[in-house]
Design brief:
By secondary structure, the chain is of the alpha+beta class. 34% of the residues lie in helices and 24% in strands. It has eleven helices and 14 strands. Strands 4-5-10-6-7 form a five-stranded antiparallel β-sheet. It starts with a strand and ends with a helix.
Length: 265
């Protein structure tokens, strides 16, 4: 690991200023991705900006129609939240499946969403629920936030402060995980709203994506059988040492059916 400057601001504007004035500096939330990257010398930023002193970025609020989760809220807190369990049980279940207890205690929802790892769980929940990403400067709809492999709509110096989730009628998540990392080989989040259903897939390709044919079928009939015959094109899906594109395409349908089952139960 190469030497770097370390900053721990206690105000969001100060953190944003450090990001913009120190070229190539990096934010640290839970550090679950960044620290291993530094250890392997895959990145060597001149400075780290630690968000751990920004208490305003932690916590969960429930206004009845929406659940807002602060960006620095750990996965374990989301999983254990009575509000999230009551209003969006699929999201609480998703948080409980991330990594292991150590990762869930340290990793944060904002860090996961900002990193946009193609096999991370939270992007499926954020996109599947049609959430709104709240930053230090604006609000971004989930459909416009995730742009591709580790790429988001965040501008330089822009910091995620919270994520606002609408409460669905029903929601569920299912994933087929890599046994060592517990990342999703394929994870599917489904959410039923009064005006239709959303289906978001993580792990299968270079980024999280929606599946319109499944959304249309589930909007007509929210049952696993409604999507059982829907096949996913493997074009553009990931092939690696863990699974071929064909297998991932097959898993999308399998996990989608399980996610609907979880939502109904």
């Amino acid at each position: 690991m190469k030497p770097f400057a370390y900053h721990q601001p206690d105000k969001i504007p100060d953190a944003a200023k450090l990001l913009t004035t120190i070229e190539d500096s990096k934010l640290v939330a839970g550090g679950m991705t960044l620290i291993p990257t530094l250890k392997q010398r895959l990145a060597s930023p001149p400075a780290l900006v630690d968000l751990s002193k920004l208490g305003s970025l932690k916590g969960i609020t429930d206004d009845g129609a929406t659940i807002t989760i602060g960006a620095m809220t750990p996965h374990a807190v989301v999983a254990a939240s009575k509000s999230v369990q009551a209003k969006i049980p699929g999201l609480a279940a998703l948080a409980s499946m991330i990594g292991d207890p150590a990762v869930r205690s340290r990793g944060t929802i904002g860090g996961s969403v900002a990193n946009n790892d193609p096999a991370a769980d939270y992007p499926a929940g954020v996109l599947g629920l049609g959430a709104t990403i709240i930053t230090s400067t604006r609000e971004i709809a989930a459909d416009k936030f995730f742009l591709g492999l580790f790429e988001t709509a965040l501008e330089p110096g822009e910091i995620i402060t919270a994520i606002r989730f609408p409460a669905p009628l029903k929601a569920g998540y299912a994933k087929f995980k890599a046994p060592a990392s517990r990342y999703a080989l394929v994870g599917v989040f489904v959410a039923k709203f009064a005006d239709g259903t959303r289906v978001a897939v993580t792990g299968a390709g270079p980024g999280v994506f929606r599946v319109p044919p499944m959304e249309a079928a589930l909007s007509e009939s929210f049952e696993p059988s409604a999507i059982a015959a829907i096949k996913i094109d493997n074009d553009g899906l990931t092939s690696d040492i863990h699974a071929e594109a064909d297998y991932r395409a097959h898993l999308v349908t399998v996990m989608a059916k399980r996610a609907v089952d979880a939502a109904l139960s």
